[in-house]
């Protein structure tokens, strides 16, 4: 029997631990079994029970206090994750061998772990050897994404993780419940973005011809290949949370032996959507 895992990624402060806590509550309400593994050696507090905590193996504070290493916070975290990669047997022992497991892996927020360091790729490969079907869940803070250039930066970070890890990936805009009504309407265009239109809307603010050409090429890459889309995540909206979970489950074929429905899709023309209907999960594909 296969096992299932969500690799919960994203920049620091994007809401990874809050996402895990919300998803645990939602899945338990559905009578689904779910466990959480903390993989952040610098974590201090989280409001969900963990089946395994990397801090039992190694902690950032211990690395930073080691006089022979003399690492700062970022270097210390990279050292911890590389040490973890050399001790995957600890994780294997912690996970056990329960069939049909569903695990949320709450990862650190240092973006370089997902872009150019091999640690997370090694973790994915190890999980796959243990018969896990892994889905990447990449979170970005919706409050950060309300400006076009910041949005492009977030898209490129998500795309870099997709290319590096080579697993199904669901991209999520978190903290939708913290946005003002005006910002919520504005954010619609970023869920399934028309990059060329976005480029035209901001053409007056780009002064450098080289920068304009580069931005156009990036927008074209994203738009032409439909490589990145985002789902909204409002922790107060049960239906919206369920839609996110359906997308993730579908990507890893969770419950494939059951009668399974494809996840709901948002309208391909987000400008025509009614915001209240979208985030109450009332828009059909």
Mean pLDDT: 84
Tell the overall outline. globular
Spatial arrangement of strands, main beta sheet: 3-2-4-1-5-6-7
Just give the CATH class of the largest domain: Alpha Beta
Order of helices and strands: EHEEHHHEHHEHEHHHEHH
Question: Can you count the beta strands?
Answer: 7
Gyration radius over CA: 20 Å
The rounded distance between the terminal residues' Cα atoms is 32 Å
| Quaternary | single chain
- What share of the residues lie within helices? 40-55%
CATH topology of the largest domain: Rossmann fold
Give the count of helical stretches: 12
- The CATH superfamily of the largest domain bears the name P-loop containing nucleotide triphosphate hydrolases
Main pleated-sheet profile: 7 strands, parallel
CATH architecture classification name of the largest domain: 3-Layer(aba) Sandwich
Number of domains: 2
Query: Which secondary-structure class do the elements indicate?
Result: alpha/beta
Strand content: 5-15%
List low-confidence stretches.
267-285
Characterise the protein shown here.
This protein has helices spanning 16-29, 60-64, 73-85, 88-95, 112-115, 119-129, 148-165, 181-191, 195-201, 209-224, 238-252, 275-278, and strands spanning 3-9, 35-38, 52-53, 102-106, 132-141, 169-174, 230-232. It is an alpha/beta fold and 285 residues long. It folds into two domains: 3-193 and 228-259, P-loop containing nucleotide triphosphate hydrolases (Rossmann fold, 3-Layer(aba) Sandwich); 194-225, no CATH class. The chain has a seven-stranded parallel beta sheet with strand order 3-2-4-1-5-6-7, sandwiched between helices. Helix 7 links the parallel strand 5 (132-141) and strand 6. Helix 9 (195-201) runs antiparallel to helix 10. The radius of gyration is 20 Å and the shape is globular. It holds the Pfam family ATP_bind_1. This is GPN-loop GTPase 3. Keywords: GTP-binding, Hydrolase, Nucleotide-binding.
């Amino acid at each position: 029997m296969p096992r299932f895992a969500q690799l919960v990624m994203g920049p620091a402060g994007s809401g990874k631990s809050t996402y895990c806590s919300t998803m645990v509550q939602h899945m338990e309400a559905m009578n689904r079994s779910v466990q959480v593994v903390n993989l952040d050696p610098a974590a201090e507090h989280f409001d969900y029970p963990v089946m395994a905590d990397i801090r039992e193996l190694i902690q950032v504070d211990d690395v930073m206090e080691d006089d022979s290493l003399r690492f700062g916070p970022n270097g210390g975290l990279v050292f911890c994750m590389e040490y973890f990669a050399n001790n995957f047997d600890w994780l294997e022992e912690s996970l056990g061998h329960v069939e049909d497991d569903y695990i949320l892996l709450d990862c650190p927020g240092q973006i370089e772990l997902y872009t150019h360091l091999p640690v997370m790729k090694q973790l994915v490969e190890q999980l796959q050897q243990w018969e896990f079907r892994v889905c990447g869940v990449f979170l970005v803070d919706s409050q950060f994404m309300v400006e076009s250039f910041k949005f492009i930066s977030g898209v490129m970070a998500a795309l870099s993780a997709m290319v590096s890890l080579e697993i199904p990936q669901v991209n999520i805009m978190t903290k939708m419940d913290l946005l003002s009504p005006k910002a919520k309407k504005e954010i619609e265009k970023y869920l399934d973005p028309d990059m060329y239109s976005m480029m035209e809307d901001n053409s007056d603010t780009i002064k450098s011809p080289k920068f304009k050409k580069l931005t156009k090429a990036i927008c074209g890459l994203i738009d032409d290949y439909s490589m990145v889309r985002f789902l909204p995540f409002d922790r107060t909206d049960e239906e919206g949370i369920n839609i996110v979970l359906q997308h993730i489950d579908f990507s890893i074929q969770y419950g494939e032996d059951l009668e399974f429905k494809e996840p709901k899709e948002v309208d391909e023309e987000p400008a025509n959507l009614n915001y209240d209907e979208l985030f109450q999960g009332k828009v059909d594909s």
